[in-house]
Amino acid sequence: MEVRSETDRLMHHAQQLIGIFAAMRAFADSLARDGHAVHYLKIGDPENRHSFAENLTKLCSDYDAVGVEWQEPDSWYVDEELRKLVKSQGLEFNVVSTEHFFEDRDSLARFMDGKKSWRMEYWYRYLRKKYDLLMDSDEPLGGQWNFDVSNRKAWKGDPEPPVDARVSHDHSGIWKEICECGIKTFGAPHEHDFRWPSNRSESLRLLDAFADSMLENFGDYQDAMSSKHQTLFHSLLSFSLNTKMLCPKEVISAIVKRLKPNNENISSIEGFVRQILGWREFVRGVYWARMPDYIDINEMRHTAKLPKWFWDGRVNMNCLRESIGQSLDTSYAHHIQRLMVIGNFCLLAQIDPKQVHLWYLGVYIDAFEWVESPNTLGMSQFADGGLFASKPYISSSAYIHRMSDYCKDCRYDRKKKHTGDACPFDTLYWSFLDDHRERFAKNPRMTMMIKNLDRKSQDELNAIRGRASELKGSMDRL
Ligand code: FAD
Ligand code: SF4
């Protein structure tokens, strides 16, 4: 069922709604073709009551149902709604787990039981052993668990990334239905040339295309960003995975099969396996362990407003204009754009994490709360005070300059210091450390940053504080 209780919970990117409805409708059609009885409620159907509970109550009555069975939803709210419904109606019910993850919802909480900080690395190693993935008996294949250091090349235009393997859809009919219902969205719909997969066979083709022509460069250029190419060697598989058109087990098995003799390409393969087996399973476990309180956390006490240009991309800082502009146009940005450009800015500018979370949840094609909220609130905004990030992901302009070509076309100058035309990232970086000095002074992984702050002269500190306050007062005009 396509319901207003979901479409109106926050403002969504147009492509999120089109993509999800298209995939749901294609799935319903495939079930019907296989002989199942399917009752599908479209967004514009007059009989649609627009909430899971109300639609189910009506369906149970129409079909004289005595019970309801469902597969565990990924949303904490839907889970609650379904449980309340069957209880209030006195219906029999049965809930089944899902084959779309390696582990069950509570597995991480059990694994971390009693630990104050949760580190993904231990979890990842445990799963590598448990599922015997990239292992040489008890040792990691290639002699190390992690090849991250080999995955940090900037991309200078070579090798050429392959052409987009996604097919083009005309989803103007679905878009028309959404508009006719008066649902408020943002971002470009691209309804006549819609690129996200709508079914399993398209998703499998995308997986093959990634394995054939991108995997070999995935590791090296995982962190690279370029205004000449928006997606580089990233797989674009997150939408297919999160909508369950693909199963993570089949994705990993397809990728591991591409391991070359002598483990030649182990760094790319391990880098990819780590994202899905490690991070994806990990953030899901964090979500189920910490909901419903997780959504409201704000340990850093940040309260600034999200600037207006998050909704139209009109900002002079080139790295943000490229990354946000691309997000609004395509509903996609890769991990480093999300973490080290947009998220980095929000954290340094001390923006209210709830506003940041709602923007991320609305904008990306793959955004579902179970995966988006730990990534945004925990990893990117340090809003849980470091439950799983041992230090905040922050950087000055140096990192963006090293990993992208954004700085050369920017109105701001990263060689200047704390003046009106100097790069705002640099001033905000030092001002963030200055404001949170006490908290981070005790963190061994922050020692070097705090030492560098302490080396600043009083004059420079005054300049940082003065410019930071000007920047914070004029966020909408950056
Ligand atoms: P690739 O770079 O090709 O990676 C392969 C796969 O690994 C992805 O498809 C994804 O399934 C998985 N993966 C990689 N990193 C992560 C991660 N940190 N957490 C979970 N899975 C991961 N991912 C989402 O799926 N939905 C989100 O809403 C989401 N929000 C994010 C918000 C922030 C602030 C950050 C920093 C990251 C977020 N991520 C999210 C993780 C990651 O950025 C995306 O999974 C990735 O960019 C999707 O593009 P891709 O399929 O081309 O990924
Ligand atoms: Fe971004 Fe600063 Fe570089 Fe401009 S100079 S692109 S604002 S990091």
CATH class of the largest domain equals: Mainly Alpha
Poorly predicted regions: none
What do we call the CATH homologous superfamily of the largest domain? DNA Cyclobutane Dipyrimidine Photolyase, subunit A, domain 3
Rough shape? globular
Number of helices: 21
Give the neighbour order of strands across the main sheet: 1-6
**Under the CATH scheme, which architecture of the largest domain would be assigned?**
Orthogonal Bundle
| Topology, number of strands | 6
Provide the β-strand percentage band.
under 5%
Here the CATH topology of the largest domain equals: DNA Cyclobutane Dipyrimidine Photolyase, subunit A, domain 3
The class by helix and strand makeup works out as mainly alpha
Largest sheet: 2 strands, parallel
| Cofactors, ions and other ligands in the entry | flavin-adenine dinucleotide, iron/sulfur cluster
- First and last CA, distance: 42 Å
